[in-house]
Specification:
By secondary structure, the protein is of the alpha+beta class. The protein has helices spanning 8-11, 16-29, 37-44, 67-83, 141-148, 152-167, 182-188; strands spanning 57-60, 88-94, 105-110, 115-120, 133-140, 173-175, 196-204.
Length: 206
């Protein structure tokens, strides 16, 4: 069968060198064994989700005036309680508002203390208008490698997207395209680019 039978015209536009690299990466990353759920539970005992090393400020969730943000927080907490671990950790960026007590900057969630914690004050610049809140969905690559080995990227991306779907249930959002250097965005958040990969990003509405 002709390899171009799907789309004769489109096949002429495909960069075959890129195709070969993607094929190799995909084949290498495919799971080669079934993961034991008990292994997941054992691995997750140390930390259910990555927490920041440096905290600039803490805000009690009950004091947060933004309904969408609190919904995401409680949806995430419920997901982690049910699944007992998460390879995804979201970083929220607040653009600032004169009527809010929250400072402009990057925030993570502390589910054990029911707090939103500020980890950075640098502005996060994207190509699009992000609105008041943006959520960046990051993959904890170290934990993913421990759990999935060579399949860590493939399985990690699936996990991140599952977490994103669960967290944003009943929350209005729109996709925030990020085409700039991902490592620069992570550094602006005070996140080590070697420890996390930016998988997806959303602008939160409301």
């Amino acid at each position: 069968m002709n390899k171009n039978y799907w789309n004769e015209l489109g096949s002429q536009l495909v960069d075959r060198e890129i195709e070969k690299k993607i094929q190799k990466m995909y084949q290498y990353s495919l799971p080669k064994r079934k993961i034991d759920l008990n292994e997941k539970k054992e691995m997750s005992k140390g930390s259910k989700i990555r927490t920041p090393d440096i905290v600039l400020n803490r805000i009690e969730v009950v004091d947060c005036q933004y309904e969408a943000l609190t919904s995401i927080f409680y949806n995430l907490r419920k997901y982690i309680e049910v699944n007992q671990f998460s390879l995804c950790f979201p970083v929220m960026y607040f653009a600032g508002n004169s009527s809010s007590d929250m400072e402009r900057g990057s925030y993570m969630f502390d589910f054990e203390k029911n707090q939103i914690v500020q980890i950075g004050k640098d502005p996060i610049v994207t190509e699009n208008t992000a609105g008041l809140f943006s959520i960046f969905w990051l993959l904890d690559i170290d934990s993913s490698i421990i759990l999935y080995g060579r399949s860590s990227l493939f399985m990690g991306i699936k996990e991140v997207m599952n977490v994103r779907e669960a967290a944003c249930r009943n929350v209005k959002k729109k996709l925030l395209p990020v085409c700039l250097n991902h490592q620069r965005i992570l550094k602006d958040m005070n996140i080590n680019p070697k420890l996390a990969y930016l998988i997806e990003s959303d602008s939160i509405i409301g």
